Amino acid sequence: MVFVGIKKENGIDGIIDSFTQKQLEQTYEVNEDNKLKTLLTRFEKNLTQEDLSTCEPSSEILTPKEIDTFLQSTKIFEERDYYEILLIPTLNKLIQTSYQNKHNSFILNMGFNYIILEELCSNLRGEKTNSLQITINGYVGERFGENSRYLFAKGEFAEDNLGHSSEHSSFTFDKAGQNCGHSSKYSHFEINEVDALLGEKSNSSTFVIHNSWEGFGAYNFTDYDVRQCTFKTPNREVLRKFMALIPEGNKIIFINGAKEEVVRNYDQSRN
């Protein structure tokens, strides 16, 4: 991870000076038209706009390392109004533009004491033969990867609605909040610990839960709508909850060492 000591008192020049020359050379090309400084200057200007619809959009093509450097550098502005509102679409656009210009394998170092960013990586579009790949080091907020297509994401902790309405995407996280995979289609979720309401309204997605699932939690579901999905686990307590709560029309698999045992198939009843 690359974290730097930000010189807030010196503004944008202080941010640039906070990086060593070696870090500069590793993250972006130093030239007369410095992309990072231009982007940060525009970002600061947009934070002063009373009408956010008048904000000047970003047009730079950054590498994955440059995008993470930009993220770290914006910390100087995190107490400003509209910081999160402007940062999320800016990051999402930078990632999508970079991907469309032949870059991939993005890494964002969020940290655990950073402002929690919601809807990060939402609406991103990869390709079937070349998925958009991203690794999150740290904590992300609700609706990470919402409405994404061919997005392959790995991370540590995501709040509620991870991968909401995603299609043909993959999410591998240590922990996830409730409503993981809500309304997803043909997506894959592999989580160690997940909160309540897994996969509600999903269709043809796969959920691999290794250690724990809260089931319905405090919710009293009488119509749990999940169709043609596959639920896998190596944990017998999670398996018991799958068998009790997952409706018919879905497949349940117990991961027994190196073997996968179908406990209930799509066409089998819950009894």
Attribute tags:
elongated, alpha/beta, 23% strand, 271 residues
Please summarize what this structure is:
Helices cover 24% and strands 23% of the residues. The protein is of the alpha/beta class and 271 residues long.
Q: Strand arrangement, largest sheet?
A: 1-2-3-4-5-6-7-8-9
Number of domains: 2
Q: What's the total count of β strands?
A: 9
Query: Which ranges are low-confidence, i.e. pLDDT below 50, for 5 or more consecutive residues?
Result: 1-33
Task: Characterize the main sheet.
Answer: 9 strands, mixed
> Would you tell me the structural class of the helices and strands?
alpha/beta
Shape: elongated
Percent of residues in helices comes to 10-25%
Compressed to H and E, one letter per element, the order equals: HHHHHEEEEEEEHEE
Distance between the termini: 50 Å
Strand residues, percent: 15-25%
Mean pLDDT: 85
How many helical elements?
6
Gyration radius from CA atoms, angstroms: 21 Å
Describe the SSE topology.
Blueprint: H1 11-17, H2 21-27, H3 35-47, H4 64-73, H5 83-100, E1 106-111, E2 132-140, E3 151-158, E4 170-176, E5 188-194, E6 206-213, E7 230-233, H6 236-245, E8 251-256, E9 259-264
What does this protein look like?
The chain is of the alpha/beta class and 271 residues long. It folds into 2 domains: 1-103, no CATH class; 106-218 and 225-271. It contains 6 helices and 9 strands. It has helices spanning 11-17, 21-27, 35-47, 64-73, 83-100, 236-245; strands at 106-111, 132-140, 151-158, 170-176, 188-194, 206-213, 230-233, 251-256, 259-264. A 9-stranded mixed beta sheet has the order 1-2-3-4-5-6-7-8-9. The chain is elongated, with a radius of gyration of 21 Å. The N and C termini lie far apart (50 Å). The model is unreliable at 1-33 (pLDDT under 50).
